[in-house]
């Protein structure tokens, strides 16, 4: 056990964490940029992680970038798995923080797999896949209840993100002593704005999942892309999507700051 703990606190583990956090920051910047293009009518791609990866695949430097992101997402998943096993730096001992890290590990392992499917050309619509899963689950009453519970869980996590951003809880995970006062203020503003924006987008996605369970319409469910498209259909929709996109980009920039100063 001691050997395992030392391994989790090794330079290699620190590299995994920073590589993973960098990949996370980059993907949010790309998703936000795709959302900007969609809002302006300059792109038909889905404004989600897959759409961002597909946009990257079309660039001359795309293949190398996708490989780096796939490895970065895998590194993030491994780092979070080590937190689930040995505890989260800056958090009190307990099952809660470890379970959160385990959930994040699963999500980013899936994102790494998604990136490899884009590289191989075997990917299919992420939003469509989510809707298919929802439709299959809702064939039975228990399935509709389960979909509704998932939607509520997403909303709860989103609210937690908004609270985290508003209360600046993320700052306790950063090496603020290594920042200048000006850098600290900039990182704080980026973190507050980006974390709240991400929480609000996720909250809308969760509400759409709940609506799908209530109305028995799987097509109403979806992730970030569906949430942004729903915003676009509202009054001043393009402006709202641009605001959400800006928030996601800001969170991505904050993520790069976290890669630099995160306590790991």
Characterization of the model:
The protein is mostly helical and 264 residues long. It contains ten helices and no strands. α4 (62-86) runs antiparallel to α5 (95-120) and α8 packs across α9 (224-232). The longest helix has 35 residues, at 181-215. 42% of the residues are buried.
Oligomer: single chain
Unreliable residue stretches: none
Total strands: the figure is 0
The geometry reads as: globular
Rg for CA atoms = 19 Å
- Structural class, judged by helices and strands? mainly alpha
Q: How many individual helices?
A: 10
In terms of DSSP E residues, the strand content is under 5%
Give helix % range: over 70%
Topology order in helix (H) and strand (E) letters:
HHHHHHHHHH
User: Largest sheet, if any?
Assistant: none
The end-to-end span amounts to 19 Å
Mean pLDDT: 83
List the helices and strands and how they pair.
Elements: H1 2-8, H2 11-39, H3 49-57, H4 62-86, H5 95-120, H6 126-137, H7 141-166, H8 181-215, H9 224-232, H10 237-261
Attribute tags:
77% helix; globular; 264 residues; 10 helices; single chain
Question: Gist?
Answer:
This protein has 264 residues and is an all-alpha fold. It contains ten helices and no strands.
